[in-house]
């Protein structure tokens, strides 16, 4: 993703996601909204990887995902295979806030940053409050940067 084009695309996607939540959508419009959300989530993941200069995988699914770390019903980062997993159905329905999916994905991508950079003490043994708060901070920083730059 080119730095400027990616940020501009993300801003337009954020606007589309936010504005479309205010409308009663036809099935065709719902599909367009789903595509916009998927594009926006991919942009957040790709931007996080670019910003922190790390490589990790991601998988967006329309339902629960069986992973080496167990079944993912919402969103999670799996250290075993260095992958962010996202259940699109759940992450887009769990909150009335249309920006929640972006935050949830940014948070899980932040765990990928922690793991790949060796910061925060993340390991296969589980998460601590400090690790979760640091992931929240990194996610907020990433989204803030994207919103400001876009």
Concise synopsis of the structure shown:
By secondary structure, this protein is an alpha+beta fold. Helices cover 59% and strands 13% of the residues. The chain is globular.
Please explain how this structure is put together.
This protein is of the alpha+beta class and 150 residues long. Helix content is 59%, strand content 13%. It contains five helices and five strands; from the N terminus they run ααβββββααα. It has helices at residues 3-20, 27-52, 88-93, 100-117, 129-149; strands at 57-61, 65-67, 70-72, 75-78, 83-87. The strands form two sheets. Strands 1-5-4 form a three-stranded mixed sheet. A hairpin with a 2-residue loop joins strand 2 (65-67) and strand 3.
Could you name the key traits of this structure?
alpha+beta; 3-stranded mixed sheet; about 150 residues; about 15% strand; 5 helices; two-stranded antiparallel sheet
Q: Fraction of residues in helices? A: 55-70%
Q: What's the pLDDT, averaged over the residues?
A: 80
Order of neighbouring strands in the sheet with most strands: 1-5-4
Number of helices: 5
- Indicate the overall shape: globular
Judged by helices, strands and strand pairing, the structural class is alpha+beta
Order of helices and strands: HHEEEEEHHH
Q: Over the alpha carbons, how many angstroms does the gyration radius reach?
A: 15 Å
Strand coverage percent: 5-15%
| Major sheet details | 3 strands, mixed
Low-confidence stretches: 18-32
Distance between termini? Answer: 13 Å
Count the E strands: 5
């Amino acid at each position: 993703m080119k730095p400027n084009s990616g940020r501009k695309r993300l801003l337009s996607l954020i606007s589309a996601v936010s504005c479309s939540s205010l409308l009663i959508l036809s099935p065709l419009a719902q599909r367009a909204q789903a595509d916009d959300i998927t594009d926006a989530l991919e942009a957040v993941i790709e931007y996080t990887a670019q910003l922190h200069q790390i490589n990790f995988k991601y998988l967006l699914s329309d339902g629960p995902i069986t992973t080496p770390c167990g079944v993912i019903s919402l969103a999670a980062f799996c250290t075993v295979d260095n992958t962010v997993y996202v259940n699109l159905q759940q992450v887009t329905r769990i909150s009335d806030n249309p920006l929640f999916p972006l935050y949830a994905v940014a948070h899980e991508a932040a765990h990928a940053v922690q793991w790949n950079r060796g910061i925060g003490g993340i390991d296969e043994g589980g998460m601590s409050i400090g690790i979760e708060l640091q992931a929240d901070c990194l996610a907020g920083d990433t989204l803030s940067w994207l919103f400001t730059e876009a």
